[in-house]
Design brief:
The complex is a heterodimer of chains A (142) and B (264).
Chain A lengths: L5 H21 L3 H26 L3 H31 L53
Helix pairs in contact in A: 1-2, 2-3
Chain B lengths: L1 H10 L4 H17 L8 H19 L7 H22 L3 H21 L3 H25 L7 H4 L4 H22 L15 H9 L18 H11 L2 H22 L4 H5 L1
Helix pairs in contact in B: 2-3, 2-8, 4-5, 5-6
The chains are: A mainly alpha (142), B mainly alpha (264).
Amino acid sequence: MSPPGLSHYLVIGALLFVIGMIGFLTRRNMILMFLNAELMIQGVAINFVAFARHRGNLEGQGFFLFLLAVAACEAALALALILVLYKVNNSLDISIWQNLREDDMDPIVDEEPLPAALPPETAPKLPVAGTEPAQEEELSHV
Amino acid sequence: MMLHFAAGTQSHHFHWEFLFALALGALGIYLLLPSPKGKASVGGSLCAIGSLAWLCYLGLAPSSLLVETALFWFFSLLAIVGAVLMATLTNSGRAAICFAMVAICVSGLMLLLAAPFLMAANIIVYAGAIVVTFLFVLMLAQQEGLSDADNRCREPALACMTGLALSASLILLLERDHDMAVKFLSPSQALVAPVAAQRAKDELVLRRDQYGRPTAPRDNATFLGQTLYTSLLFPVELAGVLLLVATAGAILIAQKRSIAEVSS
């Protein structure tokens, strides 16, 4: 009979970190990349708080507050940058910026075409549910 | 050196099942990631769910019916599922909502770790402020239909293998150094025994609970504030300066006028 221990929390933190890392490496939408970075920060936060519990002091919790401050700064700056980059190209795709790569690197070209766009959803046509009742003309005016 | 290392690894019994479960999870994420061919949702979900169930089976502590244990499994499973969904969904708005779910579950874990103030701070800052800001930017940078940004991936196979390598090494290391079912070490077992002994005189540590864990202070916010404004005072000031600079920078970056116009 024992509650979950330190290593359980560390494993959860590690898994969140790794999933965030996979998302950050693969996704091409800039907003999603930064959401995944925030996910990695959440994984690290679990580690800090779990170690604070393990040691029985509050330094780890204090550190998490600084992590929170840095994450808020990061989100504000990153989103401002994303807005500026979006205005330049009208796209959130990060691969557009691959012309900033080194000279000797080959560009990444998307070979496979995207599937044809889905047809727009059409709203169902409803039968007329009722008619407007006839209104009597008002005879008296105040 | 190599021989010694090999002998060391052989003498210890690794739980290789963790590796296979993680590999199954990586395969699931690989299948779930968006691709122009259309993602294999069914197979990917099955792999991911199977991997999660396997990991739960392997990591299940000596079964106990404590409320804490049940809440731990609830929050952590929901957090991992939300994280996988967030990393793989093509719709960014839904991904942001999934991130809010992950943040709330992490806050629940913090509550289990005796940090109620941090739970509130995490919900307010992450599930509140950051997700709302992300949704605002999504609204401003809206894209219609399929796009390169949402329906393509960079190197999904390599990224999943990197993730597998990192998570497997972390978990196998944890598995070797701490038994998965280990409790929080009591201060006499841990390396921090002198520190803990000194702390025991302090008000911060009251006593140990029945599992040998050092008891966290009852009034979390009070003692956290005390820590922040005594031993961590200088970092607090630095964090304030950092926030101010970031605010100014974000305003300067996001506005339409160029820097030359502003300075003139």
